[in-house]
Structure formats: C-alpha cells, structure tokens
Amino acid sequence: MAGKPNLRVSLLLPALLRICALGVVAVLLGVFFDTTVGLVFAVLALAVLLAFHLVYLSLLADWLERPAIETVPEGVGAWSEVFSRLYRAHRSSQLSERRLAENEERFRRTISALPEGIVLVDAALQIEWCNPVAERHLGLSLRNDGGLRLTNLVRDPAFVAFMTSGSFEQPLVFRPLNSPALALSVTVIEFEPARSIVLTYDVTQTERVDAMRRDFVANVSHELRTPLTVVNGFLEMLLDAPDAAGDPVRRHHLQLMHEQASRMHRLVEDLLMLSRLESQESAVVEEDVDMAALVRELTDEARALSGGRHSLGYEADETHVRGSRDELRSALGNLVSNAIRYTPAGGSIQLRWTVDQRGGAFSVEDTGIGIAPEHLPRLTERFYRVDKSRSRETGGTGLGLAIVKHVLLRHQARLTIESQAGQGSTFTAWLPDSRLIQPEITRAA
Ligand code: ADP
What is the model's pTM? Predict the structure, then answer.
C-alpha cells in the first residue's frame, strides 16, 4: 500500500544486505589472504548471525508463553520492528477488549436498571443470565442458579405449563408461590433459534384495580338482578291482566317497559357471566362435550330465533371436545344469535363443526349485513357496536363477542372473523388439537 513501508521488505532487506556484505568480506578475505580464511570467516559470521536470531526467537517464545504489554522484549534491527509491531497489536487488542467489556458492563447496568425482570435462557430453559428484578420476581439468584433449568426453580404449574407450551402470543399472569402477594405478567421473546428472553412485569397494582372493577361490576349486577326479576314479573303480570287489553296506549307502555326491563336483565346476566369468566379463580370445567349434538341444539335454537325468516343449515363432524359445556354453548350460541340478528330476512346461515389434524373449527357463516374492515379489530371489546341502534333494536347487549372471546381464551381457542360490509360474515372459533377427544372424523347431516 502506498505510503506504508512494506513489512516484508523492511525486515528482509537489511538481513539480506547483511548476508551479502558478509559474503563480500569473505570473498575479499579469500582473494587477499587464503580461501580457507574466507571460508572460516563466512562460517563464523553465519554462526554469530544464527545465534543472534536464536536468542531473539527464544525471547519471542518466552513472551508468547505469557504475553503482557509490559514485558514485550526490545530488539535490534529487524527484531526491533517485530517487537514494536507486536507491542502495537497487543495494545490495540487490549484497548478493544477493554472497550468491549465497558460496553457490556454499561449494557448490563442499563438492563439491570429496567423495571422489568429479564432472564436469558437457552433452548433447554437453562438460565444464562438474569437481572436483579428477575431475581426478586422469580426468587432466583444468578450466582447460584446460573446454568440451572428455570422451570426447576420456578415450579408453579401455570408457569411451567406456559414455559413448556412453546406458544407465547398471550402473556401469562400468575402469582408466584414464593411471593403470592405479587402478580406477574410473563412474556417470552424467542430471539435466536436456541435462546429466549423471559420478561416479567409486576402487574400487582393493575390486577388489584382490575379485581376491584370486576368485583364492583359483579356486585352491582348481582344487586340489580333481584329487583329486575321482580319488576319483570310484575310487568308480565300486568300485561297478562284482563284489563290490559282494554287500553292500547297503556298496553304499549307496558310492553315497552317489559322490553327494556328484559334488556336490562340480559345485560345484568351478561355482565355477571363476564365477571365469572374473567376471574382466574374459576378454572374451566373439563367435561366431555359432544360437539355434533351441541351444533344440532344450536341449529334448533337458531330456527326458533329466526322464526322462518332465514334458511338454515348445518354440518358437524362426530367429534367430542374437552371443556365446559355451558361456556361453549353460551359462546357459540352468541355467534349463532348474532348471525340471525344481523342477517335480514331471506338470508341464509350455515353452522359448521369440522375437525382436522390441527384441531376443531366451529364456524357460523351468514349472508347478512357484514362488517367494514375498520371495525373488525375492535369487535370483541365490551360494548363495541358497529351500529348502536341496530344492536339495541335486535336486543343486543354489546357484550356477546366479549363473552365469546373470554370463553375461547379459557379453552386455549381463538376467534377469527371474515367479513365484508353488505356481503355477510364468517365467525370461526378454532379449538386446539389438545381439546379434541375423538379424533375420528365422521361426517354427519
Ligand atoms: P351485540 O349485542 O351488540 O350484538 P356483540 O358483542 O355480540 O354485541 O357484537 C358486537 C358487534 O359486532 C355488534 O354490535 C355488531 O355490530 C357486530 N356483529 C356481530 N356479529 C355480527 C354478524 N354476524 N354480522 C354483522 N355484524 C355483527
């Protein structure tokens, strides 16, 4: 490279010149004195040269045994250049190492200062590193537990099941056995094929506020249930009374009151159901649910609800699933009743329960009013309605799909919605393979 002296040239040239000079002197001695004198001189000079290089080679070997910047030997001639290059290379690698170590230390200090717990694990869930927050959250000690399996140290069944499930789309919220006052949300990020980051967040406060809200809604709903039942009962009595038919205005008012009271009753029931589903305490009842029978039941119910205004069909694989019959019935029933309520007369509705190696899928396809794409992501939020007045007119509470979402979540299932405004919709509940009891597929009806 231009400008920079070529190392090979600067090392070899003086040595070659020295050998040439010795050769010339030896020849001159041979010419002026005797050939033997010339030869003896050449041999002796070469031996001295060899000894010189051997001494420096041994110095280099000693240094390479225990390389340290302070002990780089000093040299003469070509060796001076060699040692000075060694000194510079060693120094620059030391500087890079120090810079790297500083960066790593700064990175660790930054991560340690984060309010989240961070645990670095390998494919076998063995702890590689964790920050002090994770030590506090999960009762770990990096010094003693490094290299041990995380699930052997944090043995809560929910945590172990989550960590070994391999599916981390939804975070896990749990209370560790070692500190039950703490509520932790756990997320796993797989960042290399064989490595993952386990993040823990303290959600105690959020959980407490959430529980207060849930309790409040549940208590209010519970308190409203009895008075509403009484009001409803009396309104029914008044509507059935013989004199109610006499005054059409009064009858109309009574009917309106009855409709609204029934709507409130449904709302209260839905709110109670949601609070029950949301509270983690009530685990899913694991029953054997005959899905084909359930689909037939839902179709009968849909026929009654439709009153002949729609054409209805169903198909169902003869497969049973493990889960809560009541919860599944309520969730899938909500999808069916929505299809009836949002499909104008003359439309058609198809119920399907199909099974393949991935799991089971319950779908309700309608040719109704459909939903514009911007509403789809928010449909399962409580009280989210595309058209408030239509929902109310058809007796909706705005909680149906929120209930569906919670029931499915409790069954490790998920909901997908395909729809186009004016073209109809397909709501599908996907149940995982682990929930199927009978894998044989027998097509019915
Ligand atoms: P609602 O009691 O209002 O029906 P849901 O939670 O069951 O409450 O549904 C939320 C909203 O989703 C509804 O208000 C409606 O706008 C829309 N929706 C649900 N199902 C359908 C469907 N099959 N076709 C069209 N829109 C639907």
Answer: 0.67
